[in-house]
Amino acid sequence: MLNNGGSLGTPVALKVRPEDLQRNEPSRIAVHQTLGRTTQGWADNFGAGLPSCTISGNTGWRKGGASGEDGAEHFVTLHNVVMPAYHAAKQRAIETGTDPAAVKLLFVDMLDNFCWNVAPMGFQLRRSRTRPLLFQYNIQLQAISTDIDNPLRLLPFLGNIPAGLGALDGILGALWGFASDVEGWVSSALGYVDRALAPIAATVKTFVAVSASVLGAVSTAVGAVRNGISGVANRLIGIAGDVAQVGINVFRTISSIASLPAHLRAALSRVGSAYNEALCILRNSLRPRKTYQQYDGLYGASNCSSTTGGRPGSAYANMNAFSLMQEDKLPVDLNSQALSSVSSLNRGDPVLAPVPFAEIGRHLENINNGITVSE
């Protein structure tokens, strides 16, 4: 039976019991022999290993059973559940950004009293002239878990791209909503330190708009590619994470000014919390994915293989293929000054080693002027 993330498929009952069933239960034990004249040793014992089983038999040839299928039709149904349907469900889970471990193939043996979550390691069709009407099979099954009721553990580092994009859109709405009020909040807060710092408020407002544009570029890039995986998306997520960390540090530093009224401190803390939420989304749900580059075009044919239907000759023969490789252009660009200022603000600690407000203003000017977001 195929369990596709909690949706159970139609079970395939073997009309004819397997002619042979072999169940293997290994141990995770490594025995080490010692030196010396006596025969001795010691063992690393890590307990029982995952079992496996092999079944072989045939699907009969007459119509019968609840399905009303003959042997050939029943074999097709069995093969489809064990191999194509199982692997297709795994691939769909990968492409949609869900956990492929939620797809389970269940093997139930009521006679020998065991039920496993298994992976099909091989499916073999055997036909014989001595039994010409029978479709014979040999299936190797490796247990993944011997407890099919064991709940799926949803760990935070697995990530969920659709949920992450939805959460990020919510944060973008919050930041654009704060943009109209943040200048007044920051100006009032800095007034408790020095009125000469008032121009920094406009710089902070511009930073909020710039950072929201960067996060918007991430949302667009991740949503436009399959499963959120691309080199461009990965690099954008890294840049946006650094920018979000800057926002956290800046607003935590401003909200820690002594003697701030409670309503003003709360307003500034809400902006800092929005940046913190954005950083959590970028580190968990929309974290950078591993990408595997496709280099098939670089490989040419082996000696004479292209003349017998093998791989054709490389289009890059007698050329330096690596000099032709061009990096994808990012929709967000940072110059060296902006990168340096992002690093400087992220090295500071809002509590133990806060960056002076004048320095915050200077660094934010560099970031605002050094970040370019293309449409």
What would you note in describing this structure?
Helices cover 41% and strands 20% of the residues. It is of the alpha+beta class and 375 residues long. The protein folds into two domains: 2-29 and 46-145, no CATH class; 156-290 and 328-373. A seven-stranded antiparallel sheet has the order 2-1-7-8-9-6-3. Strand 1 (2-4) and strand 2 (7-8) form a beta hairpin. Helix 4 packs antiparallel against helix 5 and helix 6 crosses helix 9 (336-347). It is elongated and about 100 Å long. The two termini are 48 Å apart.
Envelope shape: elongated
**Major sheet attributes:** 7 strands, antiparallel
Helix content: 40-55%
Q: How many beta-strand elements?
A: 11
Order of helices and strands: EEEEEEHHEEEHHHHHHEHHE
Number of helices: 10
Approximately how much beta-strand content do the residues carry? 15-25%
State the assembly state of the protein chains: single chain
Distance between the termini: 48 Å
Strands of the biggest beta sheet: in what spatial order?
2-1-7-8-9-6-3
Derived from helix and strand composition plus strand pairing, the structural class reads: alpha+beta
What count of structural domains?
2
Low-pLDDT stretches are none
Whole-number mean pLDDT: 86
- As a whole number of angstroms, the C-alpha radius of gyration is 31 Å
